[in-house]
Amino acid sequence: MNPVIFVIAVLAALVVGAALGYLYHRYQLQKQHKNIQEETERILAESRKKARELELQAKDKALEIRQQAEAEAEKRRRELSREEDRLHKRRIALDKRTERLERREQTLNKRQSALDRRANEIGKLHEQELKKLEEISLMTVEEARELLLKEVEKEASNDMARIIRQVEAEAREEGERRARELIALAIQRVASEHVNEITTSVVPLPSDDMKGRIIGRNGRNIRAFEQVAGVDVIVDDTPEAITISCFDPVRREVARRAMASLILDGRIHPAHIEKILKKEKEAVERIVAEAGEQAAYDAGVHGLPSELTKILGRLKFRTSYGQNQLHHAVETARLAGVIAAELGADVEICKMGGLLHDLGKAIDHNIEGTHAAIGADIAKRHRLHPKVINAIASHHHEVEQESLEAIIVEAADAISGARPGARRESLDEYIKRIRALEEIANTFKGVKESFALQAGREVRIIVRPDQIDDLAAARIARDIAKQIEENMKYPGQIKVTVIRETRSVDYAK
Question: In the 8-state DSSP scheme, what is residue 193?
């Protein structure tokens, strides 16, 4: 075939194919355009339908809202109408009340006028009566008033004195009753043990032969023991016992335990003595620390420094009139807490002050000064509360009491020492105290005789009625009580009763 014809045929085929492709593409575009137009018409139809539905719903809602608004407006109109009726009625009532008040005011004005006229008449009559009274009594009004005032003043003075005595008596009775109830309540709530025996430092021996071993050859064992322990060992004729004497109760306890251990061990020589004493000293220090912590726990006092609890624990081996001082401290703290709770004082301050009030007794053998001052100084160094420091320092009135808590601690200390079974004293000390009470009372002028009663709890004084009047009797009772406080040491309180009696005797013949 001719190549030219072939090329022309190919070109003609390409032109025909391109024309057919164009016609097909145009057909497809027209078809797609038609579909889009139909879809658009369908969407527009649905939108018009929904728009009509929404329009109908909006009209229904607007109608409903309008109806509600009209109902609410009608309701408000009815309420306003009722309120206007009430206001109208109230206005009418006020008008009527105003009219009544005006009529009443007119009536009162008329009565006032009548009263004024009557008062003028009474004033004139009063002046006439005063002139007549002045003529009859031969006294002016001022003189009569002065005389009357003097009589009224005298009568009022007598009534005042009688009322004061009555109030004082009632206050004293009420105070004593309240104090008895409070003290009884405190003692009942704080159950404490009775003193049965005084702590001693007597070491029992298995036999009297042990005394020779304790003394040692030429006394070397007993000298070594006394030198290392710092105590005196008394070996006398007491069967199967020796006595350890020392002013420091802790050292005495260490020595007692060491001696008991040596007797049980059987090896008694200077080297072993020193070893046992060191061991027992450490044991006693542990006991002291535990006792102090236990006492603080039993008393309900928290937050004490460990140094203070160690010093407090030393009171475990200290007694006063047979009363263990650590038990006394715990009991005082509990009593102070109960009293403080009843009186509305600071319970924690009272408990801490009661527990530590005798702290100085633990080390007063080593430091100069009273145990109250020593204890207050220790508390101050440990930065305790100022009220606690004052309660410790003032519980024997060595310094001024600055708070109610200090007074409560003093009272609790006295209750703990004076309650039945708390302490016991020797017969000689008891007799000395009784005699001292009577001697103090007899030193005062006008005292006829005095008697100490109730185991020294009361001193009854009979005065000479020709030398002591009623006021002086009250003054002498106060002075005797003050001198007893200054010159004597005693637990609790002592009642001072002054009796002034006048007798008139005559005989019918």
Answer: P
